[in-house]
Each structure stands twice: as C-alpha cells, then as structure tokens.
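Justification of resources, computational component.

The compute hours requested in this renewal are based largely on the per-chain cost of generating structure records like the one below. Each record pairs the submitted sequence with a full structure-token output. That output is archived, and it is also reused by downstream analysis tasks.
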Amino acid sequence: MINKRIKTLRKKFSYLNIDGYVIPKNDEFFSEYAAVDRLKIISSFTGSAGIAIVLRKKNYLFVDGRYTIQAEQQAGKQFKIIEIHKFLPSKILKNITLGYDPKIHTRMQLKIYFGKNLRLKKIDGNLIDKIYKEKKYKSKKFFSLNSKIAGENHNSKINKIRNILKKSKIDFLFVSAPENVAWILNIRGSDNPNSPIPNSRLIVGKNKDLFLISEKQKASILIKDKKLSEKQIINPKKFSNLIQKLNGKSFIIDSQSCSIFFENIIKSKFKIYKINDPTYKLKSIKNTSEINNMISSHIKDGIALTKFLYWIKNINKKKITEVDAQNKLEKFRRKNKSYLFPSFNTIAGTGSNGAIVHYRANVKTTKSIKKNDVFLCDSGGQYKFGTTDVTRTICFRKQSNSIRDKYTKVLKGHIAVATTDLNRYDTGKKVDARARMFLKKDGLDYAHGTGHGVGFFSNVHEGPQSLSKFNNIRLEEGMIVSNEPGFYKKGKYGIRIENLVFIKRKNNKLFFENLTLAPIEKDLINFNLLNKSEKKYLFEYHLNVYLKISKFLNHKERNWLASLI
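The structure output for this chain reads:
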C-alpha cells in the first residue's frame, strides 16, 4: 500500500519539475497530534516528530533519537532512516529541486533542514492530499472556559499582550499557534485527537484590533459569551483581505508556527518581526486556579493508575497482551466522570518493545506480557480541567542485578530532579544534567530530554520550558514540567519513571512539587544503591500517595498501596 502511494506521488514530479517532495509530521496548524497525519500516510511511521523526503528513486525519513528503532520497524523497508541530530537533509542531499507545501512549513524549518544546498519549489495544494483522501476528523464547536476555572479572564490576557506590543512599538501580533489562541480567549475545542485545542488563529492589535481567524459556525460561543462580535470572526479564506484593511506598519509573527503561506500574506503589506510569540511565556506560568485544577485532575488520574498497577501486578490470567493492558487502563480512567480522552496514544511496551521510546501497540503487532518481562507503560489523560502524563516501569518476577541496577540509577536521577534546588539549578539544561549523572558514571545515557513542559487542559507537550541538554530557559514559579529519565536496552527492555511536577515558592525558595500520585515500582530497586535521603524521599512520596487516594480504593488495593510505604 505504501509502495503504491509512493509510486503515485512520484508520477507527479515530472510535470511539476521537481526531484522530490517534502512531507513533515505537522499539519497546517503545526499540531503535534494532527487530525490528518500525512507522514503516516506516506511512510507508515506513527511517531510524533519526523520529516520524510520522497525522491525519484530513493526515500529518506529523518527522526530524532527517540524514534530511530520505531522508524526502522515501521518505515524501514521503503525509507532510509536518518537521525536528524546527526545528519540534516542538507548534509545528504545536493543539487536537486524539492517541492514543498507553503501552508505546512515555516521559513525557519526549511532553513534549518535544507540550508542553501537545495533548491526549493513552492507547490500549491498538498500532494499527499491529492493521492490519498483521509477521512475527515469529526470536530465540534469551540467551547468556553469559565474565568474562575482559567483563573484569569480573556480581557486581562489580551491587555498583557497589548502592553508587550506597546513597549516593543509593534502594531500587531499574529497568534498562529492554536494552543496560544486557546489560552488567550479561554476557549477549547475538539479539532485534533488527544488535545482540546481549537484550530484557529488570532490577530491582536496594540490598541483595539482583535480578530479570530476561524469559521464563524465553530466559533459561535465567542459571540454568545460577548468575547467577540460577529465582525471580529474572519473566515480563513478572507485573511488576505483583512490584512490589506488593517492600519499599521509592523507585525510579530512566530517563527515556530507561522507558515510561509501566512508570512507571505502579512509581509506583502507589513514589516515583520520574527520572534517567539510572547503568549508561550505567559501561558507557561500557571496561576493558582490552573495549578489547583491540575492537582485535582492528578488525584483522579492517580486513582485510575493505582487501580491499574494493582490489577496488572496481581492478575491471574495466563495471557494478557499490551493492547489488553492499555484498554484496561483506559477503562479505569473512564470510570471518572471528568475524564475526557487520552492526552496522547498510550505506550504499553513489554520486553523489547519497552526499548522503543514512543512505541504504540496495536492488535496486529501486540505482544503477550510475560512474567519474566519488564513492562513500561506511559500514558496520560485529558480531564475537566487538567492534563496528565505518567510513566511506570514494572516487573512481575525478580529481575537480574543488571536490570535492577539500571532501574535504580534511573530512579536516583528521577529523585535528583524532584529534589532540585531551583535557586541554584535554574535552567532546564542544569536540571537535565542532574538526572543523567548516575547513568553517566557507567557511560550510559538516554536519547530524549528529561522533561517537557505541560499545558493546563491543553497540549501535553508545551514550551518554552523543558528539561533538556539544550534548554536554557529559566525555570519559574508556576511552570509545569515532566520528570522522566530513562534507560533503553535495544531489543531487550526499556525503563522510564515519569511524574509531572510544578514549581512552587516557599520562603523565597523555588522547588518542584509532585503532581503525579501513583506508586513507583519497588520490586526493581536495588536498595543498596540508594542513600538515606533517597530512601526518605521514596517513603514520603508513597505516604503522600496513600494519604491522597487510599480512601478511593478497595480493601485489597489499599492494603497493597500501604505495603509500599
């Protein structure tokens, strides 16, 4: 099937006068979880990041270190898999012309990937859409968040942005990332799987101008709630007309999410400033209401996770598959009325599948979970109102000293992050180094960041904050990040321990406070490798889990949880 699609695509190259075509993971809104996954259509690769290049006789798939194994398994027959941090497309491809869709690429993206070594040709109308008609994702109308839930009304947020524009002496901000539109206007939607984000764009003027770029029917709640008038909601097809009518000289566009298509329209009349949308920073610092709602959501999620962990650790069935496990976890989550849907596709990998960082089980490839296996489960949920993400690695029988040592060193890294003095280690880069130091002593590492930012009832992955080797953003009170060091033995097993944490201030000291409330596997720990403070942390963590959720468990579940303290 994939081979047929590639052949059909190549047939279009001659009359378009191109040597190849570029297919990124993202859609027109640069969503991580897009309703239309063109990269999957052309390559079978299901990871959350990557870029494919189909040539006349060769195909390449560029992915980061998280996905090299997965890409080999899913797309390796048709594509040469390249780790993008080691080799950019510009280092491999020379003197050819590549076609691209200007609606799904930013200028920065093309510059990074292709530099000046390649000729790029704009192709109007996406070629993947022309060779394959994807079923339309059923989306609904946008809905509003009460300002009490959001903790701040939309006018206050708009005024913050206007003050930034006035100080910068710039007339307009083009908010091209839907997650930022959602935050500014206190709205949510259902345009994409796994994320409550409304696909829309926004123009904010430094004075009174405010326009939502969306279909009026989908955005009708904004008129009803008197957030916007009917005249302020502009059909995307009339975007160019709107730009020509605006009075002013300058625009901020976000280099991460403003496509070449929209950039060219704005540039036709205005001077543009390519800087990060200031909304990212504003949104990353959660207010008291957002934090409290996230705490409440994690209590609900912790109940489901604890019930699941007890179930899978004590199941009597002879055969249970990865799919059975992820379906069971979903059932536990659905018992809570405030649960909506997963915040990403559950990763349930047993044995060698656990070594695939973003593995996804399906009915065709699912493996039976064996008693001798190490089982990794990474999952999350979207609740009213909050977003969760947690990973646990568990076992069913005693494991080798080698595996237990690796797990314990991952745990030590996890605890080192959780107990970080953020006044001293004040950036994601510095904290990331603390997570890796115990593995590093043995010459070991993991090919992903230690943590990503998390949104409030929004995207499970959110910037600008993260815990990674490359992130120098200062960590501030109110930010939420994941804490998820890991270790992966290709073809054997995977280990990852993940909690979400938020940054809290007390007595002028900044520190991480756990959001996640689910027990950590103790049967994999080599306690001889833990010091007194690490053992104390583990005790206090499990005591806190017990105090918060035990009353929602049955007798057997409660006793099991108590035994972990």
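The chain has 20 helices and 27 strands. The longest strand covers residues 499-506.
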